[in-house]
Amino acid sequence: MPPVKILLLTAAVGIVGANSLALSPISGAVAESFAGADAPTVMQAAAVFGLGTAGSALFLAPQVDRIGADRALFRAFYIMLAALALSAAAPALWLLTLAQGIAGIAAGIALPAAYALAAQIAPPGQQNKTIGTVLTGWTLSLVAGVTLAALIADMIHWRAVYVTMVALSGLILLALLRAGLPNHIRAGTPTTPLTALQVPGITRALLVAAAFMLAFYGFYSFLGAHMKDVLGASVAQTGLIPLSYGIGFGLAVLLDGWIDRRGAHRMSLPIFSAIALVYLLMSQAVDHLSAFIALAFIWGVVQHLGLTLIVSRMVALDPDQRGAILGLNSSITYICVFAGAIGFRPVFEAYGYAACAVLAAVSVSIAVLDALVLRTARSAA
């Protein structure tokens, strides 16, 4: 069983992830509370969340290196609590959107801090396994977060979803404060986004992260709208897709040690190729609920492995600038939340959800190409 500190970091990632992902499957229910709103309009709050996270990760995440990842994580959770409370109480859609922007600011600090702490805690030779375990927080956000959010919205009200997240965030914060997390503060010149951008290898690593995340968020953003408006599915039925994905994502932690043993340079090409293939297969399955649920499980498995490769690559570039580097990674990630929600919308409205899956596969092909170039260069050396 993983140490308590790792489990708490996993829970921290889980609650941040739950907020970032919960809006899509409940967007139809949220829209019913605000006059003139529809599900795609509500999803603009997710886009604002992405912008808030991107800006925060870019300019505030270097605080992880300056004050220590533990203190940065605590402060992020105080902000998250306020944002979730405002989301639960928002009487107008613009206030919900504002609250999600504030939550994005918290997420832009919390995720780099949690990943940096995971790297600090990891035993020698088990970095991929430890980071992969913390990344299963995204499983919590999907299985125990998004899926329960869909059920709570169906059975009680969408506002109850945010009330629940307020309570859970408070409990996680109290546990983190008592956990005795390591406090590693970088000596010397303070880190900034500019210093992080000078680290060798960072540009290509960020490009791969952008391709990977744009594909995911562009496709995921319109899950709720497709299920409700095209398939006529209930909120609870919609929740089966993230449930299946989350189970696959979580079980894939058993394969993270395989990456440590085989080496990331060997595993990147088959893993990113598998992700692109799954998107192409889903383009044929999105109108068939049973097939879509089954493929979502495989999607979760390969996405977990891909995300582990990306985060491990980032933390290995320069241990003294992990906060700034992971801030850039989170910034790119949540620019993709915004770009996915905005950029995929015309494709979704004009050509349907299957076209979004094809576009996601095209985006991931950039990561496939990078992996191929790295493997070729390593073989030549």
From TrEMBL:
InterPro entries reported for this sequence: MFS, MFS_dom, MFS_Efflux_Transporters, MFS_trans_sf
Membrane topology per record: Multi-pass membrane protein
SUPFAM superfamilies, per the entry: MFS general substrate transporter (SSF103473)
Major facilitator superfamily (MFS) profile domain residues: 5-378
Ranges annotated as spanning the membrane: 41-61, 73-96, 102-122, 134-153, 159-181, 202-223, 235-255, 267-286, 292-311, 323-344, 350-374
Keyword Transmembrane helix annotated: yes
Pfam families: MFS_1
Keywords in alphabetical order: Cell membrane, Membrane, Transmembrane, Transmembrane helix
GO molecular function: transmembrane transporter activity
Protein name: MFS transporter
Organism name: Litoreibacter roseus
